[in-house]
Design a protein that fits this description.
The chain contains four helices and 15 strands. It is of the alpha+beta class. Helix 3 runs antiparallel to helix 4. The structure holds 2-amino-4-trifluoromethylsulfanyl-butyric acid (MF3) and cobalt (II) ion (2 copies).
């Protein structure tokens, strides 16, 4: 029951893994459009990760998960399984979540894609959810706490009359995909684990338009909103530095 501290050298490796994971999401930008299936996106990503990046797609076989990507459309909160059915359609919002392993180190990241013309209320959920993620990340520094992170996310989400999913959270990450600590996306300022330089974890808020309650589909993976309303998620892998934080999975478009 302890949280691993990564050395500067370890974090250099995590940065390479993170950058590679980010490049998968960048590469997929041009492929997400009405008519494409999530299975097609999955196959493109698998080929890119194994052949171009020379990395291992961490999701494949993880606890029996069958695919490279998680593709979560509209009311799907997370862990949507790529499929040949139901091609993407105009107005969908889609989260693609990918993790790669480079020399044993994991990089885990996700972003929202807008498919064709997305209605304003959906686009707003997507934008505010990204702001929630950044608000949480901004709290990361030695001496800060995980409660600070969760609190910042919750305040911004609820100010916008959205809800924060409770049943799934961020996680420590390194040579192990999911390790301690658990990173809640809600909480009290000053509570929880005190952050120290060298800790690495994800911040990956799932924010719902309606209530935060979840339902697991019979496939054992797909998590949907109980009320059928929209959900959005963004994810970065973060390192705690002496100064504050470093985002290891930053994309070009975020600079
Ligand atoms: N990448 C997800 C996360 O953010 C986990 C996916 S596990 C899988 O932690 F098995 F569903 F791929
Ligand atoms: Co994660
Ligand atoms: Co992820």
């Amino acid at each position: 029951m302890s949280i691993s501290i990564k050395s500067k050298k370890d974090i250099e490796k995590m940065k390479i893994a993170g950058r590679k994971a980010a490049s998968v999401l960048e590469m997929l930008d041009d492929h997400v459009k009405p008519g494409v299936t999530t299975e097609e996106l999955d196959q493109i990503a698998f080929k890119f990760i194994t052949e171009e990046l020379k990395c291992i797609p961490a999701n494949v076989g993880y606890n029996g998960y069958p695919k490279t990507l998680c593709t979560s459309v509209n009311n799907v909160i997370c862990h949507g399984i790529p499929s040949e059915e139901k091609p993407l359609k105009d107005g969908d919002i889609l989260n693609i979540d990918v993790t790669v392993i480079y020399e044993g180190w994991h990089g885990d990241t996700s972003k929202m894609y807008l498919v064709g013309n997305v209605p304003a209320h959906a686009k707003r959920l997507v934008d505010i959810t990204q702001q929630c993620m950044y608000a949480g990340i901004e709290e990361v520094k030695p001496g800060g706490t995980l409660g600070d992170v969760g609190h910042a996310i919750q305040v911004l989400a609820e100010k916008n009359y959205y809800s924060v999913v409770r049943d799934y959270c961020g996680h420590g990450i390194g040579t192990i995909y999911h390790e301690e600590p658990q990173v809640m996306h809600y909480g009290k300022k000053g509570s929880g684990l005190e952050l120290k330089e060298g800790m690495c974890f994800t911040v990956e808020p799932m924010i719902n338009l309606g209530s935060y309650h979840t339902r697991l589909l019979d496939d054992g993976w797909t998590v949907v909103t109980k009320d059928g309303k929209l959900s959005a998620q963004w994810e970065h892998t973060i390192a705690v530095t002496s100064e504050g934080f470093e985002i290891l999975t930053l994309r070009e478009e975020e600079l």
